[in-house]
Amino acid sequence: MESDMVDVKNKVEGMEPVTDDVKALRLQAQGAGALGHWLIQIDSALSLSPAG
């Protein structure tokens, strides 16, 4: 029983770096999405402004 717990603990610890990488990639993707959204908004505002 105790060796089963050690095995589970080792598997969880082994997956932690992968989980952290996935979280980081998700945050980067969300940031890129937000940046893209704002760039589109800025571009739309500039396109609609009257050209002097």
Describe the structure.
- The chain is an all-alpha fold and 52 residues long.
- It has 1 helix and no strands.
- It has one helix at residues 2-48.
- The mean pLDDT is 82.
Structural class label: mainly alpha
What best-fitting shape do the alpha-carbon axes yield? rod-shaped
CA-to-CA gap between the ends? 79 Å
* Element pattern in H and E: H
Cα radius of gyration in angstroms: 23 Å
> Total number of β-strand segments?
0
Give a short synopsis of this structure.
This protein is mostly helical and 52 residues long.
SSE map:
Blueprint: H1 2-48
Main features:
90% helix, rod-shaped, 52 residues, single chain, mainly alpha
